[in-house]
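Consider a protein example.
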Amino acid sequence: MPAGTGTAEIVRRYADVRLVSHETNRGYGAALKTGFCHSTGDLLAFLDADGTYPPEHFPQLCCAALAGADLVIGSRMAGAKSQMPPVRRVGNLIFATLVSLVGNHRVSDSASGMRVFRREILERLYPLPDGLEFTPVMSTRGHP
């Protein structure tokens, strides 16, 4: 769902979900890092609320992490179901290729907002930026 459409209000409807938020917008990456600090699990995950990622794929990503992957990145590039506009798709493909070269590990969607990773790699990932560049930077640092 697009920013400003009431994500926090929707989250408040679920009694078993704890909402952690900033009083003022500090950025995409800052929000995620605050969530990581308040989390308690060995696996950490996030999903953008814009509707472009199928949440039913989380079990597959978690299984890959439990099988030993440090960072598992969901991809909007796979299949014809992607809702990414063609021009962004081409740009993402080019940037993902560069990130793959820099990070020495294949990444098909370097800006993906659907990820699962092991808490123990946070030290290797930090420092991470507070803005939208958070996910591409994480992609370059997420693999040894």
